[in-house]
Amino acid sequence: MLEVGRIGRAVGLRGEVSVTLLTNRTERVTPGAELHCDAGVLRVTSHRTHAKKHIVTFESIKDRTSAEALNGMLLRAEPIDDPDELWAHDLIGKDVIDQHGTNHGEVVAIVANPASDLLELVNGDLIPTHFITTTADQIHVNTPEGLLSCE
To answer: Which of 14, 59, 104, 146 is the most interior residue, by most CB within 10 Å?
Structure first.
């Protein structure tokens, strides 16, 4: 399961909550979507946006008191099968090979960065994602000289 959002405070009296998405995939909060949290499975029944937040109603949450109990909970969902997308969870654990054939180790994390997300390698090196191409089991990078610590 992937972390896709976080429930914020209750909105109004009818069980609506604000949701901050941790993904750019807004279909995570469209009616019918199922999200998992510590309170169980929540099915979205309505969704609207307001001030960069998503206002969501869940099928089993009918009043403000129930909505307030969800405040702060992480929302998780199954990965979306989209072959045109590069998914962070698919990059973790893959080896990084540069244009000279040198293996720089595996990716241990993805670091959010406004210009370009960064791959963090096991040795601490950071590589902007716009330098990468992927295969089934490796990440190939074509980096400028000096970007990686062993160059």
So the answer is: 104
